[in-house]
Amino acid sequence: xxxxxxxxxxxxxxxxxxxxxxKYHVDNLxxxxxxxxxxxxxxxxxxPEIPAVSSIVKSDxxxxxxxxxxxxxxxxxxxxxxxxxxxxxxxxxxNKMSLVIPIIAAVILFEGETMTALKVIGIILALAGVYxxxxxxxxxxxxxxxxxxxxxxxxxQGLADVLFNCAKEWYVDASLNGLFFIVIxxxxxxxxxxxxIPKLINGSSKFxxxxxxxxxxLGVPNFLTLWFFFRSLDSGQLEVSQVNPxxxxxxxxxxxxxxxxxxKEKLSLSNWFGVLLSVASIxxxxxxx
Length: 289
Fold this sequence. Notes:
Blueprint: H1 2-23, H2 28-43, H3 53-58, H4 62-85, H5 88-96, H6 100-109, H7 117-134, H8 147-170, H9 177-202, H10 209-235, H11 240-262, H12 269-287
Helix pairs in contact: 1-10, 1-11, 2-9, 2-10, 4-5, 4-8, 4-9, 5-7, 5-8, 6-8, 6-11, 7-11, 7-12, 11-12
């Protein structure tokens, strides 16, 4: 459980960095790209021996890792677009409610995964908790032409989580964690570079050293978040279908409290109700067996 808590806290450090990035007018694409490259380089510390590239490409988990890395950066950029077009609240709901996808996939695909009544109740409470905690109004209002964006974020994040869990469950043991991390993060970094380099060439994006520094500041907690998540899966204390929702709902709860305490963000009565539902969902999912 300690690994889950540390992973949630590290993810919230990422969210705090993003708040500060907006304040200091940092180039998002440059910072995000450097962030993934930094996390990839840190992953080399977990891999004492690096085999030949050809053997890595031929491994059973390689394309899972590439898929996760590509989905990571694509979904992240779509979240940025969605927050501008339809608001942060709806974007967060679409992203975090995708937790149902890896849960269902885990129960169907993995041996030893169960779906008890208490777990179902916990998942329902989690979905309700995400909605009430993140929404600033009483209902979801958005231009229907952006429905595709909501659906892509929902299914994209869900697919990334499923690929991640499948690779971990079937192919990646503790000895391969480092290599798996390297491929995930550097795949995301390469996609970022492919988008960033043309912008630097045509002048639509200008290099600034602060973007590199903020990218490094993002990359360290990003690496740690994934590392603690893997450790929580390796511990075997909880099923995969328990770890995923606890992580997602824990991020929502802690980020809301951090915003309230440190950034003076107002929480409505419905937001506090969502926090209580979220805490109840974590308790129910942890007790489910």
